[in-house]
Write a structure and sequence with these properties.
Length: 386
């Protein structure tokens, strides 16, 4: 793993005070009771409209988010791009439920696609299925329940939003990453995205779905989709991640008495992830966005690319990490000439809080992740003192 040990490259964009802030933050996140209390207090303060936005902004928000608006993110984006790391602008407002909000999100994504056409530093656009339609509507379709006439019309509007964005993506040549969400609504999104791939991915992968490999059924899904793609002659684009809703998935499966869709343990998830990577890299009509904070998986992708003689600059292969995390992977890979993009969340502080809270909880539950960040920051502090 020597490649990822270079902290000078990893933290070259951080000033000494930013380095200290990062160290302080991860120290806090490492403390599980602290995360629980902090989350409760933050939620209360925001609901009670207490003036805490400034404090949030100067600590956790500025570390994990690029800014409040797209323009706000640009200085950070350009700084990273100077080091070879691109950005995926991620409008991280969650849990909206009305039509006006969904239409506003479409406008946001179209704006980002235009940004992407103008700026090489923003090679992708991204959105979540529930940014374009109600969660319960996706769920109802996934559960194969009969829709009311109103719901049928509503679903047609959801489909139309996807097409609006996909057409713009093809026209401006800016690929779209569509995130995955909870398993009990995901089938509806998957079927829709497959149709979009068939229509828009005729010459190359421009529409990307997401595979959450902590689900034990996803490798089968990928091989079946590949079969379909061969028959119908379209390209597959996939962002491959481990997944973001593990606790929630297990809890729901237990409460409702069905088999959990989550792999039995961490090792099974890692194996599943790496097998999906291997499978995709064997097939030239697939484009892979490897979203991972795992050093071994990142190393595997690099190794496979070398074996298959895939150039580091081949646009069918990207590495992705979240802004504010795993800089040792992102910046060291970019330093070797690979395509790397950071997911840069943005949005009003208040609206982005659910996203940030999930990040903190996730970091707490992924064993070793926070302590690794802390060790790297410690190494860099020491190196700078010397």
């Amino acid at each position: 793993m020597k490649l990822f040990d270079n902290t000078e490259v990893a933290f070259s964009l951080k000033s000494d005070s930013e380095l200290e802030r990062a160290y302080f933050l991860f120290k806090m996140i490492q403390n599980e009771p602290m995360v629980r209390i902090g989350t409760a207090v933050t939620n209360f303060a925001l609901k009670a409209h207490l003036p805490v936005e400034g404090l949030i902004r100067s600590t956790v928000f500025d570390h994990f988010c690029g800014g409040v608006t797209e323009e706000d993110c640009l200085p950070n984006i350009e700084k990273m791009y100077n080091k070879g790391v691109s950005s995926v602008l991620d409008y991280s407002v969650e849990g909206k439920e009305d039509e006006a909000e969904f239409d506003a999100t479409v406008k946001k994504i179209l704006k980002i696609i235009n940004f992407g056409e103008e700026k090489q530093s923003i090679p992708f656009a991204v959105f979540k299925p529930t940014g374009f339609g109600r969660f319960s509507l996706y769920q109802k379709i996934t559960e194969k329940k009969t829709l009311t006439n109103n719901e049928k019309s509503e679903w047609l509007r959801v489909i139309e939003r996807y097409h609006t964005v996909c057409k713009a993506a093809v026209k401006q040549d800016v690929p779209i990453l569509i995130d995955a969400e909870e398993s009990w609504m995901q089938d509806a999104a998957d079927h829709l995205i497959e149709d979009l791939m068939e229509i828009y991915n005729t010459e190359k992968a421009i529409i990307f779905n997401t595979l959450q490999m902590y689900r034990h059924d996803r490798l089968d899904y990928l091989t079946q989709l590949h079969q379909k793609a061969k028959e119908k002659g379209f390209y597959i684009g996939m962002k491959v991640v481990r997944g973001a809703y593990m606790e929630k998935e297990r809890k729901r499966a237990e409460e409702n008495g069905y088999l959990s869709p989550i792999c039995k343990d961490k090792q099974a998830t890692d194996d599943n992830y790496n097998n999906a990577i291997r499978y995709m890299m064997q097939h030239p009509k697939m484009a892979l966005f490897a979203g991972t904070h795992n050093e071994k998986s990142s190393y595997l992708v690099k190794q496979l690319a070398e074996e298959k003689e895939i150039s580091p600059k081949d646009m069918r292969l990207w590495f992705g990490q979240l802004y504010g995390m795993s800089d040792h992977i992102s910046f060291n890979l970019a330093n070797y000439g690979y395509n790397v993009a950071k997911y840069v969340p943005f949005g009003p502080v208040r609206d982005v809080m659910p996203y940030l809270i999930r990040r903190a909880e996730e970091n707490t539950s992924v064993s070793g992740q926070t302590s690794r960040e802390l060790n790297l920051l410690k190494t860099e502090r020491k190196r700078r003192k010397l």
